[in-house]
Amino acid sequence: MEITDAYLEQESKEITKEYKELLRISYRILSVKDKKLIRKAFETAVEAHKDQRRKSGEAYIFHPIAVAKIVAHEIGLDATSIASALLHDVVEDTRYTLADIEQMFGEAVARIVNGLTKISSLKKDGDISMQAENFRKMLLTLNDDVRVIIIKIADRLHNMQTMDAMRPDKQVKIASETLYIYAPLAHRIGLYNIKTELEDLSLKYTEPEVYNDILGKLKESKEEQDQYIKDFSKTISDALKKEDIDFEVKGRPKSIYSIRKKIVNQNISFDEIYDKFALRIIYKSNPENEKFLAWKIYSIVTDYYRPNPTRLRDWISSPKTTGYEALHITVMGPKGKWVEVQIRSERMNEIAEKGYAAHYKYKHKDEAQDEQGLDLWLNRLQEALENNEMNAVDFVEQFKLNLYSKEIFVFTPQGDLKSLPKGATVLDFAFAIHTDIGYQTRGAKVNGKIVALSRVLKSGDQVEIITSSSAKPTKNWLDYATTARARTKIKSALKEKRKLIAEEGKEILRRKLKSQRISLNERTVNEMVVFFKLKTSQDLFYRVGIGTIDNKQIKDYASSRSNALVSFFKNKIRRSPDKDTSQDEGDISNNYDQLVFGDDEQKLDYKLAPCCNPIPGDEVFGFTTIKDGIKVHKKNCPNAIQLQSNYAYRVLKARWIDSSQEEFSASIRLTGIDDLGLVSVITNEISRNLNVNILNIAFSSNDGVFEGKLVVKVKNISILTKLMERLEKIDGIDKVKRE
User: Fold this and answer.
1) DSSP letters of 242-289?
2) Mean predicted confidence (pLDDT) in 548-556
3) What's the CA dihedral at 150, 201, 421, 386 to 10 degrees?
4) Is the pLDDT of residue 324 over 80?
5) Taking every annotated instance into account, which residue ranges of this chain make up the domain TGS (predicted)?
6) Which positions are annotated as active-site residues?
7) CATH code at 221-352
8) For the domain bounded by 664-738, which CATH number is listed?
9) Helix, strand, coil % (nearest 5) of the chain?
10) Which pLDDT score, from 0 to 100, does residue 64 have?
């Protein structure tokens, strides 16, 4: 493309026009000071990028202006954000430094530009874990300024809108990245329009045939749909006008991405999707009548069209954590078609479209409070950033899970409302209140009844957590918790507990080796790690601490050591670790080598399914076949959905365990003289032992004679023997025997 003087003059006019448009469409009312800041940022950006052009051939400055327009109009941020958006590529791509920006525009703009530069300079290529690590670093910039991420979303939206000139492989990569993290982030901030556009544009590049097919079908049916919306709206409009309600009705097709999702998830065709569009009734109201009018409109709509009672969504009484408020109803419209109707006031509609900016514009009138309010959402995301130990892929997956999850609303005993992700359990609720309450959870009541910690909560439940200072997290808790916060805290507590046991184990091992005339030194530890086929010294000490490696096994090691030949071969076959094993005090490894089935973790015969070839450590389930006994499938096996839906009664819970850390259940029968408080003494004695869990407990008293039965879970016989000896010493207990 030839760039003539006439072309440059025309381009310059176009740039000025875009700048004026930016000021005109800004959502916030801009003061004279604001306009001066934006003008200065605009002139600096124009000068800095004057020699740069995009792949399409247009002047580069059009990109920062477009990003600033999205920030100003669609997201509705302040002048500081608009200026930062105009300057977002200046430090990375031009001669300007961060110090120049700070000197010219102040600390806030420099901080945001620095955050955006850090994100852009992340390594772009690499496998998924490298990519995940980059996203993790990006999310950590949330600590700097929340506006960094919001402007980055605007930057990504404009890049997605103008990707046509790029190579196809680059298009697919950027689109996949967008679906992976930017769309969930936009969703979480409450930028639903931007989220929808990002998803649709991503689909356009990742699955162009599917995108164009659905787009074509939507265009074909547009005329018919417009007529249907017109007919539906007329009935409602006439009724609302009679009530003197000031409103407008808008018809909106569902996004291409959401239609695609339904086709895949529900395994149906385009024609079978009944709600391809939604109707929005937006009404004018003062704050006092807002709620009343929403329900009035609801009653008018349902006077004419039959509602589906299971599809009522009341986000006016309990707004989403993004600030979203609306009433959603699905009604049976003309010609027997279901139609989704969304009822929103003008204020609610602005919040739905602008997210937090609108929410806090209405809540706080002055700028300082506004920005403080905008930062509140950061606290919700902060929890996912607390845990720096999780590997990058898990971190991003867990983070995404928390971004996209639907919400439920549950009550505390005092009647306070708590928001949790859909699928959250009683244990998640305990950790959501406070970490210490989570750690000390002994039980819970939901709606006044005692329930299991694994109980999945529903909106409207009232939950009371019963705590005890002696309660401690167990490994099973990870099966009961779903939120990132709860899982992170539980893992951290278990790690700490295992560390303490390993420290005790080290001292026990020192004593036991001393009786064999062997010193506990680096060489001994390394030899024992190899002898017991372990990975780290922590593994060794932990297993001694829980009693898995007992006296007999230590004696076996001692006798093998005295045999020089055996020792020679042991050292030959030993793997050469990357670093000195005795120094490796990292995680205690799980050597997954055994499958157990059902809640009571039985060992059963099984075969691994050839369709998905599960390996130890995979998430799996058992399926009882007619001829081949139990077949084990991965949870993400292509056949899993069909098996679990059509033959649910044949599906068995299954999980891999580390047999060297396995616990065994044992029954103990107690007899003695009945005495007040005896049961409490017995349970206290058991709970004092770190390595014992009570599975079942039953006591009875007859004519002054006491009888009890306990089922406990222990690591090995020596722990059980010690427990029985302790119980026998309790005053009033006559006999303790194992069944």
Assistant:
1) HTT--EEEEEEEPPHHHHHHHHHHTT--GGG-S-SEEEEEEE---GGG
2) 82
3) -40
4) yes
5) 406-467
6) 92-93
7) 3.30.460.10
8) 3.30.70.260
9) 55, 15, 30
10) 94
CATH (one of 3.40.50.1000, 3.30.2350.10, 1.10.3210.10, 2.60.40.60) for 5-206: 1.10.3210.10
- From CA 622, how far away is CA 635, in angstroms rounded? 10
Q: How many residues does the chain have?
A: 739
Q: Which residues lie below 8 Å from residue 117, measured CB to CB, with a gap of 6+?
A: 88, 91, 92, 98
Q: Is 479 exposed, middle or buried (0-12, 13-18, 19+ CB in 10 A)?
A: middle
Q: Which helix (H) or strand (E) holds 502?
A: helix 484-515
Task: Name the residue ranges covered by the structural domains of the chain.
Answer: 5-206, 221-352, 493-562, 594-657, 664-738
CA distances from 663 to 16, 602, 660, 692 (A): 74, 12, 9, 9
The token duo for 487 is 């899982």
Question: Model confidence over 437-485: pLDDT tens digits?
Answer: 999 998 899 988 888 888 999 877 889 999 888 788 887 888 888 887 8
Instruction: Decide: 583 and 535 in contact? Cβ < 8 Å.
Output: no
**Contact between 424 and 395 (Cβ < 8 Å):** no
Instruction: Examine domains 5-206 and 664-738 and report if their fold is the same.
Output: no
Closest alpha carbon to 609 in 597, 596, 624: 624
**What is d(CA 730, CA 40) in angstroms, rounded to the nearest whole number?**
83
pTM, two decimals, is 0.62
Rounded-to-integer distance, Cα 733 and Cα 540, Å: 37
- pLDDT tens, residue by residue, 379-398: 545 554 454 455 555 556 55
The pair phi, psi for residue 250, each rounded to 5°, is -120, 140
CB 404 within 8 A of CB 419: no
CB 68 within 8 A of CB 44: no
Which segments of 422-483 does DSSP mark as H helices, in order? Answer: 426-433, 435-439, 477-480
Residues 6 or more apart from 594 whose CB is under 8 A from it? Answer: 603, 656, 657, 658, 659, 662
Residue 333: CB partners within 8 Å, gap ≥ 6?
228, 232, 305, 339
Identify any residues that bridge with 733 across adjacent strands, giving them in sequence order. 672
Binning pLDDT at 50, 70 and 90, where does residue 418 land?
A: confident
Distance of CA 469 to the CA centre of its chain: 29
Closest CA to 57 of 162, 154, 158, 156: 162
